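Sequence in, structure out.
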Amino acid sequence: MTARVGGIAAAIAVLCTAAAAEARKHVVRSGESIRDAIAQARAGDRIEVEPGVYHEGRPGDLNALRITGDGVELIGKTRAGRRVVLEYAGGQSFGIWVSPANSAGPGPEADPEKPPCGLDGSTIRGFALEGFTVRGFEQHGLHLACVERFRIEDNVSEGNHVYGLFPVLSRDGILSGNVVRGSDKDAGIYVGQSDRVVIAGNRAEDNLLGLEVENSRDCSVFGNELTGNTLGIIVDILPDKIRLTQERTVVAGNRVHDNNRENTAEPGDIIAVLPPGIGILLSGADTTRVTLNDVHGNQFAGIAVVSLCLAFVLQGEPGCPADLPVNPDPDGNRIVGNRVTGNATVPTGTPLDALLGDLVWDGSGTGNCWSRNRFASSVPPQLPACPKDRDDRD
């Protein structure tokens, strides 16, 4: 895991150093326009924004800010308690939209998870957002599509209703030191259909999902705190995407506690079937390593490993559709060395209570194993041990 983080950080540093020779700095002061600075920026330019509350564009604009060029750094100069705030101006769907030009605008943005750049391979190379508070947008606070080498650091996302921070179809990026709260329809931090993304040292609170990695590969989730969400961390696969695998995620050293918020998903959404109070959920994910996490105070389950087909059953279907284009079962996951205690304390009064426990497995998939965890209850009572390891019960 250390080598993976170091490699991504080094790649981003090389990009920034190469661009620095020709980069310019633009300074935006309170009362001035961030949009104007973006319009003047060239590849590698740095835009520094002084403290203040900024309402960019007009009410009803699709995006407050849009970036379609390589290597732009958007840096909020927050200091001494004075923040740089990008605030909803009325009727705006997205706070900051970053993508190749062919994937921005009313048509391409109609399906944020299937932009044209995900099909034709167009890419933005390099982007950074630092020191911003992005507040109150109808869909996403920050949306990145098809961005290679990005850095999202020390920002605050507040009350962006569907997603807070949302890189999709991107690779070789870091999200660190961010605080995300109040995304009531989906995830505070979402990484989807992406590769080699590090999600470290963030705090997510009062969201429907605290942190989600979906249909992605080789991502790392470590050192985050997830509290007060409906569900803390979910690593999952869904069929209606461009990329159709979820593999090799590391979930390590996170504090995942007291995620018992009411489920406020839209009726009919697949996540609306989840009971409040789940710490970490692997749904159809493959080859995930979940280790050294502290998971407590989640009222339904601590760490659960289940098939995507369970969600279809909970929606009233007999199981997964026969033509599902993904493997719905979790395979090759290792749950090792976690402290998982004080969960599973509030039954739902439904058949779901058969899955109430600190450690939970619905029996699906192959090659899943559990070892050296501290826990009080599990479903089933005996979980398959990882080779040469064993579990220690409280």
